## 1
Amino acid sequence: MHVVVVGCGRVGSGLAGTLVSQGHTVSVIDRKPQAFRRLPENFAGETFVGVGFDREQLVAAGIERAGALAAVTNGDNSNILVARTAREFFGVERVVARIYDQRRAAIYERLGISTVATV
């Protein structure tokens, strides 16, 4: 399965490395080029510099063939925007968003977006 990971911090880079090691194809989007240094040395996926809610950036990263997307940036607002774009515009069925503010979890769930808390 092709997976798009938005955010290449500790969580995003770890997730991307694990997914590749399990045989998935992975594209990682981050706005900071230096963030990709966190990826494993043998990372076989693709990297894209930009913001994850930019539709053109998502298309370049393969969102149209993606079976899943993980929005794991360091901002709740960015993550919800990325997740909603993937779900509503591109029709990605498996979408998960990282949240910092637990009070937002109910909102995400009403939108049909699974969440993962940092705690």
Note: Residues 1 and 24 are 5 Å apart (CA to CA).
## 2
Amino acid sequence: MNGNTSSELYPVSHYGTTTGKLLKSKKLKIFVAEATTGGLISASLLALPGASRFFIGSCILYSKKGIQQFLPQDVIERSNVMDVTSNYKNKENYISSKKNFVKSVSEYLRELHDCDYCLCESGTSGPEFYIPGVTSGFTAIGIAGRDKTYEEVLHTGVTNRECNMYQFLERSLEILNKVIIEEHGEL
């Protein structure tokens, strides 16, 4: 990750180039569920020529209302995302809740859309956050494949909202690239 500041950001297509080539060359399909990247992951893939060969669709699950509109109640309950009393109690609960959320959502949407992968991310991009011990620049990333789900937590330590969004985008695609290469080989 290059740790760019907002004045050093690349065009959005730059971030998705390798991922798009991998997905296209391996004839793989993906669905994306985003929160704190606000659609940047999807935009980085859709900016590439031939995206319709690998991109199924996407959603932004940012607010409680948005989550309720996109996800069935059983997935919401399984992800435990609405238990704000517990999830927002402390750092450990918050991080655990986000990991559980991205895992549950990525697995559900991958199966729903019968695609090879679903990438889901959710966290806090800043500049401030109100849970003791949780700093801005945190996201959980989940990538559900047909046989396995991959998870990672990213802490940037940065308070600049836009910079965090781009770092979350970049890391999410780096992980996806690694997963695709491990499962399907290099380009």
Note: The first strand starts at residue 30 and ends at 34.
## 3
Amino acid sequence: MPEVSTYDPKKVTVSIGGRVITGFAADGVVTLTHNEDAVTPSVGAKGDVAYSENANNSGNAALPLMSTSSSLAYLREICAKRRPVRFSVSDVDADAIQVSEENCRILKMPDTPRSKDPTTVTVNVYIPDLNYR
């Protein structure tokens, strides 16, 4: 029998600076990415392998928002003030994850598109220590 699973994006909550972010685009809710590999392998002349552990555990969160999202004004304000904030993701789906880190920063001012139809504005948040709980 094939494996069947269910994912509900309504069970994923993203908050920045204590405020729940709303107005996500159809692209998804959040993509969490580590900035570097966890290890660097080195292979010797005879094929022996040694791993160097990487201490850089920083990451990035990409938030695809609709250009009409009311959260964009708040995120632009945080970016303009260059404020470090708490970034949190809570996912209570079957494959649940929790991320909550202090001193995160919005990497650049979110775009301000003005077009016929709403578009996607991706907001990137730098996370100094990306740990899943």
Note: The chain has a mean pLDDT of 93.
